[in-house]
Amino acid sequence: MSGLMLAMLTSMISTSVVGTALPTIVGELGGQDQYSWVASATMLTMTVSTPLWGKLSDLFGRKLLFQTALGLFVAASLVAGLSQNMGQLIAARAVQGLGVGGLSALAQVILGDIVSPRERGRYSGYMGAVFGISTVAGPLLGGFLVDTDWLGWRWCFYVVVPFALVSFIVIQKVLKLPKIKRSTSIDIWGATTITASASALMLLLTLGGVEFEWNSLWTYFLAALSLLMLALAVLSERTARNPILPPRLFRNRTFVLTGLASLFVGMAMFGAMIYLPQYLQIVKGLSPTESGLMTLPMVVALFLAGVISGKIVTQTGRWKIFPVVGLLVVAVGLFLLSRLHVDSSEWLIGFDVAVLGTGLGLSMQMLILAAQNGSELRDMASTTSGVSFFRSLGGAVGVAAFGAILTNRLRDEIADMLRAAHIALPGGSNVKLGSPSAIQQLPTPIKNIVLEAFTRGLETVFMVGVPIALLGFVATIFLKELPLRGSSTPPPAPNPLSKDDLVLAGLLLELIAQRIERGNGQPSALLTAVAKMAPPDDRPERERARSVAKNVLRPTSRALIAQAAPPQKDLVSGGISQ
Description:
The chain has about 575 residues and is mostly helical. The chain has helices at about 1-15, 20-30, 35-60, 60-80, 85-115, 115-145, 155-160, 160-175, 190-205, 215-240, 255-285, 290-295, 295-315, 320-340, 345-375, 380-420, 435-440, 445-475, 500-520, 525-535, 540-565, 565-575. Helix 9 (about 190-205) runs antiparallel to helix 10 (about 215-240) and helix 11 packs antiparallel against helix 18. The protein is elongated and about 115 Å long. It starts with a helix and ends with a helix. Keywords: Membrane, Signal, Transmembrane, Transmembrane helix. InterPro entries: MFS, MFS_dom, MFS_trans_sf.
């Protein structure tokens, strides 16, 4: 657990740590028009790779793939820290997302392998707390690193490397999973079509309204490509020998509903997390460190909600109430955030984000627990990575869609208010997001207009998140609360029989043959004789005799009975039954 949680902590921090550092990064490397791609590139590759890691772990082993993802993550983090322009940084962040996708999915898969569903509630609470803490504590760490002169923004990528290496060593030393012989076939066509469909959708949402108009040829082309690849992916998964997302999963009501709910959770959570620091820095004028500190109420609330709900599930076995209430609380939190204004107090902001964190803590990990508990053991990896895929997909869609909403609303609001005030903004009405220092230096009338426009844009973003969270709430209502299994693995096969057991079986068979020949054997006498001949052992002799009769003698006796003459059948059958 220490190795898994450390890996999740470092990987998920890497996805959120750049939130408060982006304005500084853009100021140094340039490329303001590529601002959203620094976050979207990681979300995109994390999303499309999540189901692939789960299937590959079925083929090549959990431990090897988990350590591979860690190595990929470390290498990409180092390259990101050394980037000299936005193109290099975006490419490194894309590779980093591949590693993050593997770590986030495989940590849950491994947890499902080693902990029973009944006990998993407690552990899922810890994992959910780590996930949430890393997601919202990233901006705090990023702000501290940016504000520290002798560190700088590059350490946003370097700081996670030592923790990832420690996690690698811990996993290597203590994680012992049984070696299972698996099929070596890989669904290449399925992987290609799933990745292409998700990628086309992400490109459409990220570039639409920015690089090209929504009503344009590019929009229709990317939408058609996404739908075509989705149709081909469905066809591929129905015919593949070893599909990445087996079609039988989509006949499982629990998997479908938890996947939908996770999709909506991801949209609400990641959408809020990426744009909340922008409100704090641009509208409220807080420093990166101060804006990170404003997320602490969410960290505490998410941690407490995740851990407490997990312990309650372990004690009671009841889990459905938590995601149902959690999604409703998420909707309330987003609505409260949509009511924030330029002059909102820090106490009010802290309360609002704490409400959101409570809802996320109650729902996030419980959805994975429900999906794992409702799946067959052979589908554990596919189910876990599938639900994680939908959550990541929701996050990527949320970041892209909310970004498009904010950009378009901000542009229109600034233009309208400037015209109403009869003010001409130098350089036109296009204000670049993520430049708080430049906005604070604008003349007071223009700055006030920009801040008000930004506040209205964020109001729309958070309000759009409310019905999304409510859709997740509806999906959880229809979940069937299946009893939590007491074990995550099938019953172990009987231990191989020892040499003494085989000797005893032979003696018993010989005794039965002798009694059959004499025709005067009695079943009770057979059992007594066997018990006296049993070799010394820790177990009672009678129990040992019964074990041998069940595992060795009974299958052999079927052949004896079939070969015996009719008068002898009853005698042999009676002896075996005893």
